[in-house]
Amino acid sequence: MASRQRLGYAKEVIPRKAKERYDKLKSLLEHHRRLYYTLDAPEISDSAYDELEAELARIEAQHPDLAAADSPTQRVGGEALPKFKKVPHKVAQWSFNDAFTPEDMRDFDKRVKREIGKTSDKNFSELKYTCELKIDGLKVVLEYKKGELVVAATRGDGVVGEDVTHNVRTIESIPLTLARPVDVIVEGEVWMSEAQLIEINKRQEELGKPPFANPRNAAAGTMRQLDPKITAARRLDSFIYDVAQTSEGLPSTQHKELEYLRELGFKVNKHFALARDIEEVIAYWNEWKGKNKSQGYWLDGIVVKVNKKEQQDALGYTGKAPRFAIAFKFPAEQVTTVVEDIVLQVGRTGVLTPVAHLRPVLVAGTTVSRATLHNEDEIRRLDVRVGDTVILQKAGDVIPDIVQVLTELRPAKTKPYRWPETVAECGEDGRIERVPGQAAWRCADKNSFAVLRRKLRYFASRGALNIEGLGPSTVDALLEKGLVEHADGFFTLTEGDLLTLEGFAEISAKKLIESIKKVSKGVALSRLITSLSISQVGEETAILLAQNFKTIDDVAQASEENLAEINGIGPIVARAIYEWFRDKENKRLVEALKGHIKIQSEKVPKAAAAHLPLAGKTFVLTGSMESMSRDEAKERIRKLGGDVSGSVSKKTSYVVAGDEAGSKLDRARELGVKVLSEGEFLKLLK
Fold it and tell me: Which CATH number does the domain 449-521 belong to among 1.10.150.20, 3.40.50.720, 1.10.357.10, 3.40.630.30?
């Protein structure tokens, strides 16, 4: 609600009694809102609450200057947005690795103890786990300044999300004002009850619109409404489960963190528990596996976290997930369908993956028409044939997987699937070969058009070098015209070359060349390794390599033994990396790329860092800088031997304050930590 002053009116003189009544009503409504929506312990009836809210609205109508941004009446309002804004996350958002069996969890426990043992006296009596229900909804990240909600965003890709503040403000269980004026960033799940889904689907059918498949899809679709009034009408709910950052200092355990969230006024799922060992974790999982559909919200497993923050920090993260936590999934939903065909798919490393084409079927809320059969050995194990009726499940509710063939329903005269001797996409003669020591087959011609096309598409993709404008269709056109034969060929293209392609004009050609030149000025080592399509090596393994080797030459020269010693890289992966870098054509490619790209190291060895100018210095970044992004600033600091922290403490050496610096700047001044402007920071880097 816009104030009269902002609209140009003179300031209103508000009677003292009206102001007092308003403040008391607002405080009382907030108290009962929290009892009802957050604690599930209402003390007054719905009609009584509605009448109090109506009185508050009448006072605001009589005295517009009283209307506060966090008033209960402001939960629904505002105009529909034309589109969602992008929001860079101030704290990186991670996903969890998954476990599906008790044995998976025991392996996780062993890994945790092994890693903690490297940094402690190996006394695990203090190792405990916090178990929480894994709500099947949509993740949101909430930022509060001085206790007031300022931004709510979706997870997005973990780095950038979408601004959904206008919709989150309509969710009654999410406080607009916290119990204390704290600066905090929290994470949680927005969800819809099954009862609410039934009501919404009735309305969808009345309007002639398709119903939502499940509460998760309905919650996600509701959060993406541009009109907050639609979101408000669908009555979403929330559970908050993690503190990403706080000006008050993080609690010492995950268990205390959940209590801390409750203190601030957030709705926390009440079923979390502390487990003394992994067997108690498994018992908790077994208990909830049997009653996961009894709560009114969807559960797809439990989340298990090492309880002590000190141990969490020691364990750290891999390239995509925390090492101190894991999602222990419930058994997946299973359905039956029919295999209509089995087709071989050529991957970017030339490996052939058999894919079953299925009669479309709904499983775990989504329609599935494809399922990987992994390799020849898996086909033989299942004895799956075209025409078979099979049991399909979504492993972890994500990947479609055939788990059983119902041979009783097998049609007459079906034949076992025979692996072909040739595959048309594998070069002129189409020959294929078994990968030594593995169950996989691959194209014998590693430079066949199909393999090369997939390699080059992946090389330019967002997950690799991220060359803007160089999409799959452009890569295919360059290959067909003979303008590019290998990945290094992208960097020798000219505008004239591109103008020979259909759909390219001077402006689009110039933009693509500029994108290629931009990439050539600096590529992180991990991204370059990812882009090379090395067998067994994805983004996470590439990050591990970049964390342990300074240059691409160091990786190339590493022995199998050195590679296998890296935590997270086993002997099979080590062998694949070692052999790739000893292939003549791959050596040529790496040397050529080194001539075109400035490759950026991502981790300086500790021994070398001790002699670097920023060794022993810890930096905290706040606000935005004109000369570089925050990620670029972090890379520059680390290259010079410094460390980067997310919070200010007495141990912080410098706080770098850019435009719109936040509470970290205030904290630095309180503690007497030296503050650097952007100009001073740039001088220090030189």
Answer: 1.10.150.20
Domain at 524-600: CATH code: 1.10.150.20
User: What Rg do the C-alpha atoms of the chain give, in angstroms?
Assistant: 29
Q: How far apart are CA 580 and CA 532, in angstroms?
A: 10
Fold of 107-329: D-amino Acid Aminotransferase; Chain A, domain 1 (3.30.470)
Distance CA 465, CA 593 (A): 12
Nearest-angstrom CA–CA distance, 425 and 381: 26
Tell me the residue type at 70. Answer: D
DSSP secondary structure string for all residues of 232-247: HHT--EEEEEEEEEET
Low-confidence ranges of the chain (pLDDT < 70): 1-12, 36-42, 45-48, 50-51, 74-82, 119-125, 292-293, 319-320, 332-333, 364-366, 394-399, 540, 567-568, 603-610, 638, 646, 660, 662-663
Domains 107-329 and 449-521 are alike in CATH topology:
no
Q: Which CATH number fits domain 609-685: 3.40.50.150, 3.40.50.10190, 3.40.50.300, 3.40.50.2300?
A: 3.40.50.10190
- Classify 16-75 by CATH class: mainly alpha
Residue 22 to residue 80: CA distance in whole angstroms: 28
| Residues labelled as active-site residues | 134
Look at the pTM and tell me if it is higher than 0.85.
no
User: What is d(CA 2, CA 22) in angstroms, rounded to the nearest whole number?
Assistant: 18
Burial class of residue 332, CB neighbours in 10 A (0-12, 13-18, 19+): buried
Q: Rounded to an integer, what distance in angstroms lies between the CA atom of residue 484 and that of residue 490? A: 7
Q: For 652, how many CA atoms within 13 A lie in the half-sphere containing its CB? A: 25
Domain boundaries, the chain: 16-75, 107-329, 334-409, 449-521, 524-600, 609-685
Contact 284, 275 (CB under 8 A): yes
Residue 417: CB atoms within 10 A of its CB come to 20
Burial label, 576 (beta-carbon count in 10 A; 0-12, 13-18, 19+): buried
What CA–CA distances, in Å, run from 626 to 170, 462, 682? 35, 24, 11
Q: Which residues contact 342 (CB under 8 A, 6 or more apart)?
A: 354, 355, 356, 357, 373, 379, 384, 386, 417
User: Residue 91: which H helix or E strand, with range?
Assistant: none
Q: How many residues does the chain have?
A: 686
- The predicted-structure confidence for 415-444, as pLDDT tens digits, reads as follows 999 989 898 888 878 889 988 877 888 888
| Fold (CATH) for 334-409 | OB fold (Dihydrolipoamide Acetyltransferase, E2P) (2.40.50)
- pLDDT tens-digit series, residues 540-581: 688 779 878 999 999 999 999 999 888 668 888 999 999 999
